[in-house]
Amino acid sequence: MNIAFLCRHYGKSFRGAETYVRELSSHLSRLGHNVKIYPHIFSGIDKSTQILISTNGRLDAILARFWCLFYHAKLIIPGQSGPGIDDRWNLWCFPDTFVALTDFQLYWARKANPFVSVVKIPNGIDPAVFNSQVTPLKINISRPIILIVAAFTPAKRLDLAIRAVAKLKRGSLLLVGDGDQKDYLIQLGNQLLGRRFAALKLPYSQVPQIYPAADLFTFPTVPYESFGIVLLEAMASGLPVVATADPIRAEIVGDSGLFVDPTDTETYAATLKHALNTSWGKKPLIQAQKFTWGKIASDYDRLFRKLCSQ
């Protein structure tokens, strides 16, 4: 089957949507599909495309809808933007199927546009790449190490983690990523944590090695973030998680971590301490195994065949 992805920043950044396209396209190719990736609708999409999957929203989503109508293809829009105005817009572009990443988003999408078919297929993890047997990078800060892998942007709320870890008597914070808030976060981290803080920018090939170097993963993102593939990467590497208390993070993390309102600095710090002092066993690994890209690619394969049979 001929499959095309639209992904504006593919190959330029390694955030959630780009990881989704890279991993899903690779696993679909292994199932025998002919997969191509384009930055936008004006990139000369192969006219024999049967399924178009657009991670680009707004104007590109509208144009993708018209392209599919003209060339008799099926349009799938995955909910990578998260419940909010962008995915509401995507839903009202009337894709053939909107893919929700969680149960919460599934129910939200069905209310946002009851006239569009909505199915749930989450994002995933490749356990061959992210696992506890990977050789860890050497990090020159004191343990225990609390890790965040994320874009340095306001929506990730990384400053809240810095302030919370500063309340702990022991433990360091390691930020891995890049973004517009880089200078601000480094200044704040050095001011509040001193030698107990480090910020790194790593090539994607080294990211699997950073998780085994840590003792705990935390993710204080806004409640409306669509998913958080880094949560799966952390759990697949054996790390427990402290995440924002919202339905999306609760579904992803399950019993492999604790949940908190990160804007409450004192409670956030106490929750981090509690997580560090808890024996988690294999709970993170077991939870991550529910989200393998192989299984997710098979779910998409069934969706493709259903759409093309209609």
Helix content: 25-40%
Estimated share of beta-strand residues? 15-25%
CATH class of the largest domain: Alpha Beta
**Spatial strand sequence of the major β-sheet:** 2-1-3-4-5-6
| Secondary-structure element string | EHEEHEHEHEEHEHEHEHEHEHHH
Number of domains: 2
| Shape annotation | elongated
As a whole number of angstroms, the C-alpha radius of gyration is 20 Å
CATH level 4 superfamily of the largest domain? Glycogen Phosphorylase B
Number of helices: 12
End-to-end gap = 15 Å
Structural category? alpha/beta
Question: Can you give the mean pLDDT?
Answer: 95
- The residue ranges in which pLDDT falls below 50 over 5 or more consecutive positions are none
Task: Describe the main β-sheet briefly.
Answer: 6 strands, parallel
Strand tally, please? 12
CATH topology of the largest domain: Rossmann fold
CATH architecture of the largest domain: 3-Layer(aba) Sandwich
Give a short overview:
The protein is of the alpha/beta class. It has helices spanning 16-30, 59-71, 85-91, 103-112, 158-165, 182-193, 207-210, 229-236, 247-253, 265-276, 283-288, 293-308, and strands at residues 2-6, 34-38, 51-54, 74-78, 97-100, 118-120, 145-149, 172-176, 197-200, 216-219, 241-244, 257-260.
Quick tags:
12 strands, Glyco_trans_1, 310 residues, 6-stranded parallel beta sheet, Glycosyl transferase family 1 domain-containing protein, Rossmann fold, 2 domains, 38% helix, glycosyltransferase activity, elongated, alpha/beta, transferase
